[in-house]
Amino acid sequence: MPISGENMAREPEQIQREVLEKYAENFPSIYLDVVRHADLSTISWAPLMYRHPWRIIFGNLNKGNITVAGDAMHPMTPELGQGGGSSLEDAVVLGRHIGNSIIKNGGQFVEGDMAKAIDDYVKERRWRAALLVTGSYLSGWMQHGGAKWWERFIRDRLFFKYIFGFLAGLAHYNCGNLPAVSSSGKED
User: Which domain holds residue 86?
Assistant: First the structure.
């Protein structure tokens, strides 16, 4: 009997059974042993979330002094391992824009400038976030692709040779430095 993700979130035994019966049946025994001996209190089920890149590029990600960051802005599949890292990038970029606004205004929070700072943060993060979401999805799609000769050719001869290196290189990114402020509230 199929069980919904909602029910599975509360039933670790069902999650373990589902993984063993449906998802890991062809795994080496060493992996199956890990699943079989997992502490049931640590098992949970959550769906992967995805936002289409064009919704990141063209979508409304802020309004006035309110914005989204991290998974709320750019949920992505785990294939590039950039979800947490990109959330930290968001924090630095948002902090930089807000910090520069506060410094510019003599240590004061000015609502109109704050809205501009948040808008600038969204403009700076939009394209990188869309690229990471797209790259992660594409990487997962290719890695989990089929076994037909042409699918293997595309994956092994084209994707891994020409595209994956670029996608893996996305991990190297300088999101800038946070502004430094002295104890007097002025920029160092």
Answer: 53-169
